[in-house]
Write a structure and sequence with these properties.
This protein is an alpha/beta fold. 30% of the residues lie in helices and 26% in strands. It is built from ten helices and twelve strands. The strands form two sheets. It has a seven-stranded parallel β-sheet, sandwiched between helices. It has a five-stranded antiparallel β-sheet with strand order 8-12-9-10-11. Strand 6, helix 7 and strand 7 form a beta-alpha-beta unit. The longest helix is centred in the last third of the chain and has 15 residues. The radius of gyration is 20 Å and the shape is globular.
């Protein structure tokens, strides 16, 4: 399947009450000339009506029989498959999760099912965060932390209700969990839709264009949050076989604790850069074209729990070519 045939998908997440529905309503009602298929996941007693996916006049599909990240992920795959049968009717797909969803399994859906992977491309994970309550939510609810950790974009909403000093503290908390997400301050989710939709943000080269040093800059790890980040670099080319063996074993044994992994790699004997990104135990990678003049350096980043117990630096350094 050609890359141009893939339909972009935006995953819209955020804790209860953050403003996801407000943002979704803006996307659906503003005059932007785009047609979106929307999958909304809420709790309720009604099951999935599979006939929805064949009705060309439908725009919003409700998933009411559980949380999208666990009990109804199979239904998500089926709905996406139905949508692909009429992909010419819309420009992109938006998936809104429940406020208690872990984004990781949702993101995995676009890699683990081959038909979905062939026909769709995860464009970005957009997390709406409540500037008033986020600090308390991070301390009390694991899901809130996961939603921040997986975000490509954080819409820090309700900023009109928090003083400047308090906003600074909230942003610091976000950056300690995920220093690579772009933070956009909003009132009533009033961000330009160009900053939310159609970003191609779930790709490493796009992130590096916006923030070239995000893989290599130093970060403060001295905080109470379970989720931390670690970045590693090597000016020496890597041995492909050594890296595949090490990284495969790492994901197999510790993948549950690795929320996100991304990297640009310089393999000995290869002219092209190799780019990968992972979600837990799943990893997707491909060549990214030639290296810029004089810029060959392997860079890798991890976001996860207990990273300091995985021997990541030693394992990475052992992959250097002789």
């Amino acid at each position: 399947m050609e890359q141009t045939a893939q339909v972009p998908v935006t995953v819209l997440t955020g804790f209860l009450g953050a403003g996801k529905t407000t943002l979704l309503n803006r996307i659906l009602t503003e005059r932007h000339g785009k047609k979106y298929a929307v999958i909304v996941n809420e709790f309720g007693e009604e099951g999935i009506d599979n006939d929805l996916v064949v009705d060309a006049d439908e725009e919003v599909f409700e998933m009411n029989n559980g949380c999208i990240c666990c009990t109804v992920r199979g239904d998500l795959i089926r709905i996406l498959g139905g949508l692909m049968k009429r992909a010419d009717k819309f420009d992109a797909i938006i998936v809104e999760t429940t406020g208690l969803a872990d984004p990781a399994p949702v993101a995995q859906t676009f890699f683990v099912d081959q038909d979905v992977a062939d026909r769709t491309k995860l464009d970005a994970i957009v997390t709406v965060a409540d500037a008033v309550h986020l600090s308390d939510q991070l301390g009390e609810h694991h899901e809130a932390e996961e939603q921040i950790a997986f975000a490509d974009i954080v819409l820090l909403n309700k900023t009109d209700l928090v003083e400047a000093e308090g906003l600074g503290r909230v942003e610091d908390r976000i950056r300690k969990i995920n220093p690579y997400a772009k933070i956009i301050r909003t009132e009533h989710c009033g961000a330009d839709l160009e900053e939310v939709i159609g970003l191609n943000a779930f790709s490493l080269d796009r992130v590096l264009e916006v923030e070239p040093d995000f893989l290599t800059s130093d970060h403060d790890h001295e905080h109470d949050d379970d989720v931390k980040s670690l970045s590693l670099t090597s000016d020496v080319p890597l041995d492909l076989d050594k890296f595949q063996t090490w990284f495969g074993q790492l994901l197999q044994t510790r993948g549950q604790d690795i929320l996100r992994s991304k990297g640009i790699l310089d393999f000995k004997g290869e002219d092209d850069r190799f780019v990968f990104q992972g979600v837990h135990m799943l990893m997707d990678g491909s060549p990214m074209g030639s290296w810029p003049e004089g810029a060959r350096q392997s860079r890798i980043v991890f976001i996860g729990r207990d990273l300091d117990t995985m021997g990541l630096e030693d394992g990475f350094n052992a992959c250097r070519a002789a």
